[in-house]
Amino acid sequence: EHSPYRWNGLTWELNDASTGQDVTYVNERIVGTQATAWHFVAEVDPTEVYGPMRALMWFGLDDHAWAPKVPLFGGATGVHRSYDDGNCSARVACREALGLPGTM
User: Fold this and answer.
1) In what order do the strands lie in the sheet with 38-44?
2) Which of 22, 32, 40, 97 has the fewest C-beta atoms lying within 10 Å of its C-beta?
3) pTM higher than the cut 0.70
4) Positive or negative, the Cα torsion across 17, 22, 25, 31?
């Protein structure tokens, strides 16, 4: 049951108050795993916000536990130029030409 990727195992026990007996529960997968290609967390705001802006998706690449998440609103029609591969933003020369910081 012990694994370096699952520090607390896959099962746990809890006493069921209605029966007085211990019940075993199983958690098949932890949230953060090193084998994730991409992941997202979606949320919907139930308030009186304009419809397309209620939906928000946090998108990330690789390990869910450590990867930074990029917010994408439901009403978005495009992405920021730093995420747009059409303008070659990941290459140093293009980043400098666009005034974007850093290197990839």
Assistant:
1) 38-44, 55-61, 70-73
2) 22
3) no
4) positive
